[in-house]
Amino acid sequence: MKTVTVEKKWLLEQVLINQEKHEATFKKAYANYCRKLGKLLEEHLTKVVEGKTDRVYISESPPTKHTKDYKRVVGMLTASVDDTIDLSADEFSSYVQDDWHWKQEWSTSIASNMGPR
Fold first, then answer.
1. What CA–CA distance (Å, rounded) separates 90 from 107?
2. Is-contact 74 12, C-beta < 8 A?
3. Do residues 12 and 85 make contact, with C-beta atoms less than 8 angstroms apart?
4. 6 has which bridge partners?
5. Which residues pair with 88 in a beta bridge?
6. Hey, where are the domains in the chain?
7. pTM for the complete prediction?
8. How far is Cα 90 from Cα 100, in angstroms, rounded to an integer?
9. Whole-angstrom Cα distance, residue 21 to residue 16?
10. How confident is the model over 23-33, as pLDDT tens digits?
11. Are 98 and 21 in contact (CB under 8 A)?
12. Where are the beta strands (DSSP E) in 1-117?
């Protein structure tokens, strides 16, 4: 199957659910990132004050956020006058199954900010 026709209302609900999950996961990962970064900064500051380091380097990256992708789809669906929407397999994968082209990289970003350090 290359395409599927779905009810706009159902699709909008799916995208909003996925967006909510994405935002909740991001917020948790970002809070963990801030805690982890704060701890690293404190450790480095202590070393600097004690004269135990010549150089400070921190290579932590914040988790990425893709809320704009969800908002674009929600906006398009809201603006559509159609009651049904035709989706390609790729669109269905992204909008319904929440498996976007950026999902693997995002999952790695989130995982690196969820674990203890």
1. 19
2. yes
3. no
4. 85
5. 3
6. 3-112
7. 0.85
8. 8
9. 9
10. 999 999 999 99
11. yes
12. 3-7, 84-88
